[in-house]
Amino acid sequence: MLFRRSDVPLKGDASGRYLPWLAAVMVYLASLALVCALTMNRAITHWQEGLSGSLTIQIPHDADAAGAAGAPERLERVVALLMATPGVREAEVLEPAEIERLLRPWLGGAAGLDDLPVPQLVSVSFDPAAAPDVDKLAREVAGVAPGAVIDTHRAWLGKVRDLARSVQWVAVLVVALIGACAIAIVAFATRMGLSVHGNVIQLLHLIGARDSYVAGQFQAHALTFVLRGGIAGLVLAVGTVFLIGQGLRGSDVMLLPELTLQPLDWSALLLLPVFVALVAMLTARVTVMRTLGRMP
Amino acid sequence: MPSSPAPQVKAIGKDLVRFEDVALRYGAGPVVLGGVTFHLAPGSFHFLGGASGAGKSSLLSMIYLARRPSSGRIELFGRDVASLTRLDAAMMRRKIGVVFQDFRLLDHLTALENVALPLKVSGQRDEKVRRHVAELLAWVGLAEHLESYPPTLSGGQKQRVAIARAVVGRPSLLIADEPTGNVDDRMAVRLLYLFEELNKLGTTIVIATHNESLVARFNHPIVRLADGGVRVERAQTGAQTRPSKGSAA
Ligand SMILES: Nc1ncnc2c1ncn2[C@@H]1O[C@H](COP(=O)(O)OP(=O)(O)OP(=O)(O)O)[C@@H](O)[C@H]1O
Ligand SMILES: [Mg+2]
Fold first, then answer.
1. How far, in Å, from the CA of B66 to the mean position of ligand 1?
2. Nearest Cα residue to atom 4 of ligand 1
3. Within this chain, do residues A226 and A109 fall inside the same structural domain, yes or no?
C-alpha cells in the first residue's frame, strides 16, 4: 500500500488521457494490416496448392470442314497420349455443355455455341510429386493435335502472387510505420512529462533517486496505459475482421480463402498489443535515461 | 609503528564538509557567495546564520548537491564533488537529509507516503517501515494526519512532515533550511531536541535559521554569512574562531 503509488503524478497529465486512445487507434490499424498480410499468405498457399497438380490443354477449333470433322479423333488421340504419360492421374474432356455453362455469362444466353470457334478443353490432373515434363508433353500433344496449347496456369498464378506479395509488403510497411509513430508519440509524451514534472523529478534526485528509478515510473506509466489502449484496439480490430468475414461469406468471392485465422495468426495478433506496450516501455526508458543523463 | 606525525592534519582530512574558497553566482548575475571557506567535522552541530538574502539557502544547496560552485572546491565525505558521477551523487544524497525552506512535499502523496519516499527511492520497500514512519510522524505531532495530503495541512504541519522526511533515512548529514520558521516556539524547541537526539546518534547537523533566541538557547557554533564571506562563531562567547577568507567582489 505504502509504496504502490507513483511518485511522478503522470496519470493526471494530458499524456495519461491521450496515450490509451492513441494506442488503441494504432493497435487497431496495425492489427488490420497484420490480418491482411497473414490472409494474403494463406491465399497464396491456397492458390498454389489448388493449381500445382493440374494443367489444361486447349485444342483450337479447326475452321475448315475437314478439320472439324476430324475433331473427335484428335481429341481421342490426345486423351490416349495423356493416359499413357506417367504421372497423369486423370484427363477430363470438358463437355460442350460444360464449356457453354462457363462461357454463358460472357456471351449472353442467346448465342449458340455451334456457331463459335470454341476450343476443345482437356483438364489434366497429375501427381505433383511425379509431374510430367511439360515441354516434352507439349511437343507430343502438338504431334497428335497440331495447334494444341498447354496452359499450366503458371503465368496467372505468378501475377496473382506478385499482387498478393505487394499487398503484403504494404501491410508490413503500414505496421512498421505505425510502430515508428508509436515510438515518436511515447518519446514526445515522456519528454513532456519530464518537463511538466521537473520539480518532482528534481526532488526525487535530491532524496537520492537514481535516473533508473525515475525512468521506472515513466516506464510503468507507458506500459500500463499503452497496454490498456492496445487491448481495446485489438478487440475492435477482431470485431472488424469478424464483420468483414461475415460479409464475404455471403458473397461469392471464389478467389479469396475464407477469412479465418489459424492459431499461429491468432497468437501473432494477440501479441501485438503486448509488443507495442513493450516498445512503448523501452522508448520511455531510453528517453528518460538520455534526457536525465544530459543534465549536469 | 611510527606515531602519527600531524594529528591535526589527519583530523581535517576527516571533515565531513569542506568548503575551500567557494564562490557562487547565478548565471551572469552578481556573486552571491565569494571566498567561502569552512570545515565541518563529523558529528558536529552548526547553525548557519546571516541576514535574509545573505546566501544561506544557496550555500546549503551546494552541500546537498543541488548546485555546483562557480569556483572553489567542495569536499563531502572526503570526496571532491566535482568528480562525482550522477550515480555517485545519487548514492551520496542518500546519506544527506534535507529540510527545504519551501518543504517540497509531493502534493499527490499522503504525509505517510511523503515521509516514506526516501526509503522507497533507496530500495527499502518493506511494508514494515510503515510503523517506523507512522511513529516518526506521531513524534512530530502529526499522528492524526498520516493520511492527509500536504495541501490540506498548515504551514507548520507541512514543515514537520518535511522534517520527518529528512530524518527518516537516518542520514549522516542533516541539512535544515529554516526548519522552525512556521512553528510556535514550543514546537521549535521540540524539533531542535529531535535534531540534538539525532546529533547524539552521530548525525552531523547544519541548521540555517534567523531565530536568534533559538540559537542562543542551544549551545552550538554558528557559521555566519555576511558580505558574501563566512565567519565561524562559538555560540557561547560569540568569539570569532576562524577569520573570513575574503568577501564578494
Ligand atoms: N535561483 C536563483 N537565481 C538567481 N538568484 C538567486 C537564486 N536563488 C537565490 N538567488 C539570489 O541569491 C541571493 C541569496 O539568496 P538565498 O536564498 O541563498 O538567501 P538566504 O540567506 O537563504 O535568504 P533567506 O534567509 O531569506 O532565506 C539573493 O540575493 C537571491 O536573490
Ligand atoms: Mg533561504
1. 14
2. B26
3. no
**Tell me, what's the pLDDT at A133?**
79
Decide whether any atom of ligand 1 lies within 6 Å of the B54 Cβ: yes
**Residue A266, C-beta contacts closer than 8 angstroms, at least 6 positions apart:** none
Query: Does ligand 1 come within 6 angstroms of the Cβ of B166?
Result: no
Task: Tell whether ligand 1 has an atom less than 6 A from the beta carbon of residue B224.
Answer: no
Please indicate, yes or no, if residue A10 is contained in any of the structural domains.
no
**Do both A165 and A284 map to the same domain?**
yes
Predicted ipTM of the assembly: 0.87
Minimum mean pLDDT range among A6-20, A52-66, B143-157, B159-173: A52-66
Tell me: do A40 and A118 sit in the same domain.
no
A268 in a structural domain: yes
Complete DSSP assignment for A205-240: HHTT--HHHHHHHHHHHHHHHHHHHHHHHHHHHHHH
Q: Which of A9, A213, A293 sits opposite B121 (nearest CB)?
A: A213
Question: How many interface pairs between A and B have CB atoms less than 8 angstroms apart?
Answer: 67
Indicate if the pLDDT at residue B136 is higher than 90.
Answer: yes
Strands (DSSP E) contained in chain B are 17-25, 31-40, 45-50, 71-76, 79-80, 96-99, 173-177, 204-208, 222-226, 229-233, 240-242
Residues A278 and A133 grouped into a single domain: no
Residue with cell 503465368: A155
Q: How far is the CA of B50 from the centre of ligand 2 (A)?
A: 10
Q: What band does B164 get if pLDDT is binned at 50, 70 and 90? A: very high
Judge whether B67 and B58 are in contact, CB under 8 Å: yes
Q: What is the pLDDT averaged over residues B72-88?
A: 95
pLDDT of residue A137: 83
Q: Does A171 lie in the same domain as A281? A: yes
The answer to whether residues A117 and A250 belong to one domain is no
Which residues does chain A have within 8 Å of residue B104's beta carbon, measured at their own beta carbons?
199, 203, 206
Q: Which residues surround ligand 2, an ion (CB under 5 A)?
A: B 56-57, 101
Percent of chain A with pLDDT over 90: 36
Q: What is the pLDDT of residue A5?
A: 77
